[in-house]
Design a protein that fits this description.
- The complex is a heterodimer.
- By secondary structure, chain A is α+β, with helices and mostly antiparallel strands.
- In chain A, about 30% of the residues lie in helices and about 25% in strands.
- The longest helix of chain A is centred in the first third of the chain and has 28 residues, at about 110-135.
- By secondary structure, chain B is α+β, with helices and mostly antiparallel strands.
- Chain B has a 5-stranded mixed sheet with strand order 2-1-5-3-4, with helices on both faces.
- In chain B, strand 1 (about 5-10) and strand 2 form a beta hairpin.
- Chain B is globular and about 50 Å long.
- The termini of chain B are far apart.
- The chains are: A alpha+beta, B alpha+beta.
- At the A-B interface, helix 4, helix 5 and helix 15 of A face helix 1, helix 3, helix 4, helix 5 and helix 6 of B.
């Protein structure tokens, strides 16, 4: 790669010397090396300027339908002074895009935004220096619009970015020292730019993972027991009769240990072969079953930790005027992407190319390399968007399974999970049990709070790997699965507070992983209802009670925004109980995940004869710091409110004493159009705060608001969800 | 056994090689490489694979290809032309009004379910050009969305209805 041009610049009036030269021709398709992620300390890793005055931004985050690919381009376009039509990104690819650490915790803007912004600012500074030479004008007298640099007051003296560097490398170190624009100057950031992906998604041109086909490939399906068994126990093949699919021409059984799959040239043949293969499995070790789940969790020898302790909780609880002590439970819930996960793998003796919908191409590459016995630098992972995943669904599992099938078949294989594979072998959001105690003084000030939570860890080994004989492991400790100090009382000013975490062993339960608003939805349901009871005992309006106990301006901001959107009028909860068959109620709640602030109000309807509960109107407010694209965030709030209603009223992974039994949309129902609530989404824009995530917090707040609304409607507390008719009728009967 | 079959898809007669019991979905995706209908459940529960058969929304994952012989299949890709034929337009628009309205409302999240949403909403508006909110909810109730886009989809269908009536 010869240097075409070399320039060294000395910025006068300061000590900063910026040296860079323009290197070889950039190709958006092939760059970097297979030896590792592109070097994050190079501006070229982040963006390229093309001769036609357009730019490519290389982003290490997955578009999951949340619009982050558009929003991160807005950040880059803003700093570069480019129009949105002049800027694009490329497919995530371990050979092409930087390692930004995976698309987790709704944090692609929070973590990626500053990096993209700084890289774009660095490139802009370099471009202006080139333009300064070219136009023989000091940088201070240049201005940029849509990638055209011109001399102030003399628009005819201009040059485009494309003409300055088009097609060449910057070969410029990413120092992070280039000044960025002040928010007051923003023109693109903070606007609801239309999402780039939507036109192709409605026309049918968008290529989802499920559409990817490669020449010479076979179709594969996995063969597993219907419904997963206890994590760690795997599933052992007892008998397998390959001749049972001999009538399906070209269909073959492939096996490594207890990992079993079939391949065929035609997809329907692969599906039929997987169904018709005669296979039996050894008896499964016991699971607690839905009925015994929470009791067993409490009985386990847990690993205990005091997450936070301040003041004297016991003394404060004992001496307070009002106190509440309650237990709550929350079920396993499933990711279940609407289109089951899919992957295409082409594994040879020396290398592997795997196309899949992972949220982290680099992590998936590492696990594939280990499983397939191929050096990591010879494994390439490319991301194609699948259907919405809301956390760690089966995308790694399907990538591993496709890799194994391709290796065994010595041909490229496309594998799509069947509905029962995805529903039955998910990494479920773990079940949760909570004991919450809280106390308030006569004026309604919270004086003591204790939250003790039981749940198991996330599971670190995918089913495919486990079936080949890899021992199950717990996910490396990250703290996220612990009782969350932010959600559990963290928004209130409480002098005496204790959070206890009881970690249940993962083996013997279901495979678990992070599901949107990971456990925060369960924490908020328990915590915010307990505090709502204190408000009731203190004779206070629940909104007023929360305001009284909050000092943080940002928490107050979302609480007020949700209340105002709902036109909240003050009164004590359950003050309007009615003897009618169908009653209504309203509730308020707050919640978070990691960094942002969520507030919600729910207005629900309860049919006391049938036990059916429907959310009529849901209001959600979020403070996610500087919001790049308020339109996207409103859509995220709307989705969170609807998904929360679905999780509160319908969703529960069911299990018997051997396996999961919720395997499709009938046995694991979700909310439908007829019950879709009216939605109000409020973005609390904070131009001068750092970006933070916007995809999880409103779920926790909304779960709390729905729980509190049920009490307002009926005078009875629901201490478990989903609020199915049978549970509601039982709760009403108990009173 | 796989044999040759002729089926009419998006106003073209296509010869495909498939066993007669093959669900139409796999023929559309693998033989004809259409991207509209897509696998969601294989059980007729979700609506991801929907197509129109003689103008009626049909789950292609549970419809044998042999059952559509002699009938007219319209996929997402063919909806603009199908709409033009219904409205006797000289030229098919780039997008069906439902598709345009979904863009206008920025209703999409992951978008995987939108094939079925668009097919079903197009069928609804062809029969009932000005549906009430309740009628839309009832018609769409068999189409699931995991992202929770229902509120914006409801708005988009109302918008499409107004566009078709020429008032938007």
């Amino acid at each position: 790669m010869g240097n075409v041009i070399r320039r060294d610049f000395l910025k006068t009036g300061g000590a900063l010397v910026i040296g860079f030269h323009l290197g070889g021709v950039v190709s958006a398709q092939e760059r970097g090396s297979a030896a590792g992620p592109p070097d994050a300390k190079q501006v070229d890793t982040w963006l390229a300027i093309h001769p036609d005055n357009t730019a490519t931004v290389y982003i290490g985050f997955a578009e999951l339908g949340q619009g982050n690919s558009t929003a991160l381009l807005q950040v880059a376009a803003e700093e570069l002074d480019l129009g949105m039509s002049q800027i694009a990104t490329v497919r995530l690819d371990t050979n092409v895009t930087p390692n930004q650490g995976g698309t987790y915790s709704s944090a692609s803007i929070q973590r990626g935004g500053p990096q993209v912004r700084a890289a774009a600012a660095e490139a802009r500074r370099a471009l202006l220096q080139l333009a300064s030479k070219k136009l023989a004008t000091p940088v201070e007298r240049l201005e940029v619009s849509k990638g055209v640099v011109s001399v102030m007051g003399s628009p005819n003296q201009s040059v485009t970015y494309g003409a300055l560097v088009g097609g060449k490398h910057f070969d410029l170190a990413f120092t992070g020292s280039a000044p960025v624009k002040p928010p007051s100057a923003y023109q693109v950031v903070g606007t609801a730019a239309p999402r780039n992906d939507i036109p192709d998604k409605v026309s049918g041109k968008y290529v989802y993972m499920q559409h990817v086909r490669v020449p010479g490939m076979l179709h594969g399906r996995v063969v597993r027991p219907r419904g997963q068994r206890a994590y760690g126990a795997g599933a052992k093949v007892a008998t397998l009769d390959e001749s049972s699919i001999a009538h399906i021409a070209g269909a073959r059984v492939l096996r490594r240990g207890d990992f079993v799959g079939v391949v065929a040239e035609r997809e329907w043949d692969a599906i039929r072969a997987a169904r018709q293969l005669k296979i039996t499995w050894e008896a499964a070790p016991p699971l607690p079953g839905s009925a015994g789940l929470y009791v067993q969790m409490r009985k386990e020898k847990t690993t205990d930790r005091v997450v936070v302790e301040r003041g004297n909780v016991t003394a404060a609880l004992d001496s307070a005027v009002h106190h509440v002590s309650r237990s709550y439970t929350a079920p396993y819930q499933a990711h279940v992407p609407f289109g089951p996960n899919c992957a295409v793998a082409d594994v040879t003796r020396e290398s592997a190319l795997v196309m899949c919908s992972t949220q982290d191409v680099y992590a998936t590459r590492g696990s594939l390399a280990r499983l397939l016995g191929i050096p990591q630098e010879k494994v390439r992972v490319q991301y194609y968007e699948g259907s919405g995943t809301y956390g760690h669904s089966c995308y790694d599992d399907v990538a591993q399974a496709a890799g194994l099938l391709s290796q065994l078949a010595a041909k490229p294989v496309r594998l799509q999970f069947m509905r029962w594979d995805e529903h039955g072998w998910d990494n479920y959001g773990p079940a949760h049990v909570a004991d919450v105690r809280a106390a308030a003084d006569a004026s309604g000030n919270i004086v003591a709070y204790e939250y003790a939570g039981w749940q198991h860890n996330w599971s670190g080994t995918e089913t495919s790997a486990q079936l080949t004989g890899v021992a199950p492991a717990a996910w490396p400790a990250s703290g996220v699965q612990e009782v969350n100090r932010l959600t559990c009382g963290g928004m209130y000013d409480i002098p005496n507070l204790r959070l206890l975490n009881h970690q249940v062993p993962a083996l013997g339960y279901l495979k678990g992983a992070w599901l949107r608003s990971p456990l925060d939805l369960s924490f908020a349901f328990a915590s915010e209802q307990t505090l709502d009871e204190l408000a009731y005992l203190a004779g206070l309006d629940p909104y007023e009670f929360r305001k009284r106990n909050m000092k943080d301006e940002r928490w107050l901001g979302v609480l007020n925004a949700a209340a105002q959107a709902a036109q909240w009028t003050p009164r004590r909860a359950a003050a309007k109980l009615s003897g009618a068959k169908v009653v209504t109620g309203r509730g308020i709640g707050v919640g978070t995940h990691l960094a942002s602030y969520g507030g919600a109000v729910a207005e629900i309807e309860v049919n006391k004869e049938t036990g059916k509960v429907v959310a009529k109107r849901l209001y959600g407010a979020i403070d996610a710091g500087l919001v790049v694209n308020p339109g996207n965030v409103e859509n995220q709030i709307s989705g969170q409110l609807v998904q929360t209603a679905s999780r509160m009223f319908h969703e529960e992974v069911t299990l018997n004493t051997t396996n999961v039994t919720s395997l499709d949309w009938t046995s694991y129902p979700i909310l439908r159009f007829e019950e879709s609530p009216e939605i109000t989404a409020v973005v609390v824009q904070r131009l001068n705060e750092r970006y933070s995530g916007a995809g999880e917090e409103v779920m926790a707040a909304c779960a709390a608001a729905i729980g509190n609304a049920f009490f307002d409607a009926t005078g009875v507390r629901m201490r478990e969800f989903p609020m199915t008719p049978s549970r509601v009728l039982a709760a009403l009967k108990r009173g | 056994m796989a044999g040759e079959l002729k089926i009419r898809v998006n106003d073209q007669v296509r010869t495909v090689t498939a066993a007669p019991d093959t669900p139409l979905l796999y023929v559309l995706s693998n033989e004809l490489e259409l991207q509209g209908p897509r696998f969601g459940c294989g059980l007729g529960q979700c609506g991801s694979c929907s197509v129109l058969v003689n103008g009626v929304e049909t789950r292609s994952c549970v419809t044998p290809v042999s059952a559509v012989q002699g009938k007219s299949v319209t996929t997402l890709e063919g909806l603009p032309a199908w709409y033009a034929a219904q409205k006797k337009l000289h030229q098919a628009p780039a997008l069906h009004p439902v598709q345009q309205a979904l863009i206008d409302e920025q209703a999409v999240q992951c978008g995987y379910c939108f094939n079925g949403m668009i097919v079903k909403a197009s069928e609804l508006l062809s029969k009932n050009p000005q549906p009430t909110d309740a009628q839309i909810r009832t018609a769409m109730n068999g189409h699931l969305c995991r992202c929770g886009t229902y509120p914006r989809v409801l708005k988009a269908i109302q918008r499409a209805s107004r566009m078709m009536a020429g008032v938007a």
